[in-house]
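Notes from hallway chat w/ T.B., transcribed later so I don't forget. T.B. wanted the structure written out for a chain they're using in a teaching module, and asked if we could keep both sequence and structure tokens in one place. Agreed to drop them here.
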Amino acid sequence: MKILEVIYENGVFRPLSEIFLDEKKHFKILITEEDISLAELFSGIIKGLNNEIIDLIALDAELENE
């Protein structure tokens, strides 16, 4: 799974950073608003960690492409 930050302008989602995806491949996209933490989004999937730790792991740039 990849997490991309985008801005929605004029009916189009524009990435805020460069993305590397296969051309003409179909993707499913989950859209959340900025005020929802990743910990809340993945609540119940990762057990035993508090929300702050889950957010730190999810936003770690070193793990982005693994």
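Follow-up for T.B.: The longest helix spans residues 51-58. Might be a good example for the class.
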